[in-house]
Design a protein that fits this description.
Blueprint: H1 8-18, H2 22-30, H3 33-45, E1 52-56, H4 62-70, E2 75-80, H5 83-91, E3 97-99, E4 112-118, H6 127-137, E5 138-149, H7 157-177, H8 184-192, H9 197-204, E6 208-216, E7 221-228
Parallel strand pairs: 1-2, 1-4, 2-3, 4-5
Antiparallel strand pairs: 5-7, 6-7
Helix pairs in contact: 3-4, 7-8
């Protein structure tokens, strides 16, 4: 079966309708592991000591909030193209928020010490354009962190994970959000999204160097880090 990328407008409309329940659903579907994934991201960011950080596709601001709490001296700005999600992020305490598409960020070149994106790059119409735009707004030597789903490499785990993605997860998400189509696109988007070496190669081709993959939870999620070239 051929897997199609979801259109950006469709993704925006979906997130607009489930914005109020987005965090609860994420905690439910991940079994609470999303807290651990963000903690790992914060640990990887710590040596960078950023003073100005942009969180692209910030959504409800979970990662941006975790970064702000752990680095009180860092100015954290969240950007997202879905206004209802930004309203949730604001209620969660994020003060600096910008409504913007990740492929067309309204910031000058070399503005930030670090750029992060948690579960957002995968939803962009062009991963290359999104990564290149992140490189543009980073200072030379600045750091990138991408947190997103990936496919496990273990032959025993992969089919079980795929069954969960395509058969179980959409049902649970639909019941939790009241939208029968909620998260139906997720399994296909993860199948399409590069992971491991394919992802580090893509990152390095978009203005970065030294891209590294940090697989978590049996490889179902990965954190990627890189430095702007």
């Amino acid at each position: 079966m051929e897997i199609q990328k979801e259109k950006p407008d469709s993704v925006r409309d979906l997130f607009s309708t489930i914005a109020g329940r987005y965090q609860v659903v994420n905690h439910l579907l991940s079994g609470g592991l999303d807290f651990y994934w963000r903690a790992v991201a914060v640990r990887l960011i710590r040596p960078w000591k950023p003073s100005r950080l942009l969180d692209v596709a910030t959504g409800s601001g979970d990662l941006a909030s975790a970064i702000g709490k752990n680095f009180p001296g860092c100015r954290v700005i969240g950007a997202d193209f879905c206004r209802p999600m930004l309203e949730v992020a604001r209620r969660n305490g994020l003060a600096e928020l910008v409504e913007a598409n990740g492929m067309n960020l309204p910031f000058p070149d070399s503005t930030f010490d670090a750029v992060t994106a948690a579960f957002g790059l995968r939803n962009m119409a062009s991963w290359q354009s999104g990564l290149s735009e992140m490189a543009r707004v980073l200072k030379p030597g600045g750091h990138l962190l991408i947190l997103d789903f990936s496919l496990p490499t273990l032959p025993v785990i992969r089919p079980l994970y795929r069954f969960y993605l395509h058969r179980i997860l959409p049902i649970i998400a639909g019941l939790a959000t009241g939208r029968a189509d909620a998260y139906e696109y997720l399994g296909g988007s993860i199948e399409l999204f590069p992971s491991g070496k394919a992802m580090t190669s893509l990152i390095d081709s978009c203005g970065f160097r030294e891209a590294k993959a940090h697989p978590l939870t049996l490889g179902t999620v990965s954190v990627y880090t890189a430095t702007r070239g």
